[in-house]
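As a warm-up, study this chain.
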Amino acid sequence: MNTYLKYQPPGVQFFAFLGLAGGFIVLNSLLTHFFFSDLTAVLLDKTATIKPEMVVQFKAAQAMSAIISFLLPALLLGYFSSPKALPYIGVQPRINVLLVLVSLLFLVAVQPFVGWIGSLNSKINFGSLQQTMQETEATYNRALQAFLKMRGVGDVLINLVIMALLPAIAEEAFFRGAFQKVLLRLTKMPVVAIVFSASIFALLHGTIFKFLPIFTLGLMLGVIYHVTRNLWYTIIIHFMNNGLAVLTVYFSPKYPMLEKLANDEVTVQWYTALLSLAVAIGFILFMYNKSLEVLPASTTEEDIDYIA
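Now compare it with the structure written out below.
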């Protein structure tokens, strides 16, 4: 029926999504304040001891945030936009095994470039705001260190779910499947849609000293989604990226090289970074060409005009 948002002017759909996103972010904030009100105070107090039960609450809050703030708005956008809600936000019924393999190779290839960008980001001085930024970063790192304390396989599996699987699904559905889509429909300019959604993706991670590497990864994910029109590939890349970070921290005490990686102590030369970028772009171009072959198997003519 023509009441679906995909039939409405792009601006209507865009502001409808902003309303959904804003409403669920407010809801998540209220629920966090009601159920986990003491978390923020503990994290901000440098002298406070973060007890195990607080870590459990923190993980529960993170899981709740991923679902309420990101996943639900994206799913509802699909529901209100099209009778085929999941394909509308990029969740296609099929994936190509070769493209999955290339997605994993892309993730490996792009790591040196992202690491080099991260080293540049860490050297930025924010002038009079530097101390405030550093204090905010310290709070972020304090929370992350508490989150990543893993005593055994059980803790690893829980962290893989909360820090890798849930964010991969929820954030990709929100930023690529929904936000990038409505921006593309509004602006008709893929570059604007990809860059702006990647910028918000990086900002909402709440760490200014890692903004550039997160933005770079978001940019790459946005391009991959745009050329494949299939959210599964970006979900896989996102999951593996976060999952490898969790595993690196867990195994770092046993392996000096992993400890350097976990502490961002590995130096990447500019020429290695450029080679990394070139190879990553090559994989994206391959995915684009291969997607032209496999898209007809997973979409119909009716779908093509609204899958972005």
